[in-house]
Amino acid sequence: MSGKTVNSAILLLIIGNAIALVSDVLIKMLGTDVPIFQFAFIRCAVTLLVLLPLWKQINREKLFEGGVVHCFRAHAHLAGIVCMVIALGSLPLATANAIFYVAPILVMVLSVLVFGERLSTLSVLAVGCGFSGIIVILRPVEFNWAAIMALGAAASLAVNAVMVRMLPKHQTTVHTLFLTYLMVLPASFALMLYEGAPFNPAIVTTAIASALLILGYNITVLLAYRQVDANQVTSAEYTGLIWAVAIGWIWFNETPDLWFVVGSCMIVIPLIMVSLRQRRLPRAESHFVTARECPETSG
Fold this sequence. Notes:
0% strand; disordered C terminus
């Protein structure tokens, strides 16, 4: 699968989202008592080590160009990892992933606030329906700390996605990823020491597997979007929620209720409609970006 046709690109995104869900499953299996900062440090360190052989794709003469933006994105990414681990450990798999899909909605809101973009009527509808969908899924009686963490993870993804536009244009994806994980290591290491949890071999295994799986997801995204306009295939990203429902139902015996179904539809369907509308626009006019569309943003 080269991703050179629309069908192959869609298939790559479906497979990629399934791979990302496997990472979520592994994290969820760690439970609620996992040393979060130990997991975050190990996963970031492993990712950095995997990127080292690709050193030739990094501009060493301008290694830290755009350093302030890179630093902000790196620590937002660390916060996102922490929020994601808490959310996955405490919420049903499908519920956590449904909330993660608020990220594309937040991208649209942040694009207005940061770049002064104007939303179309359909985009405004997507924003309103998306936030309403979250209320329907969680309902006030079930809105707890884990739900706040899931929203935090979505916010981290959105911030990273929006700030991609602030990075130096000539930097490669490898360069961006390398700086992200390099800059996040000191803070994650310090937090791990502060946490003071005993070394846990199970966390090492899960962190390594999670890092490799997310990099695998990034590869599918790169292949899918390299040859095909993003607006032609973006809707395939939302198959991740289908994987989450299926795996949660089969593996964790989490049966989605009617509230979840209605709320998820309120989040995803307007986003798909926005994506489909972009297909009718020239590429230069298409600005809709999902939080997972940029490989640098995946959590």
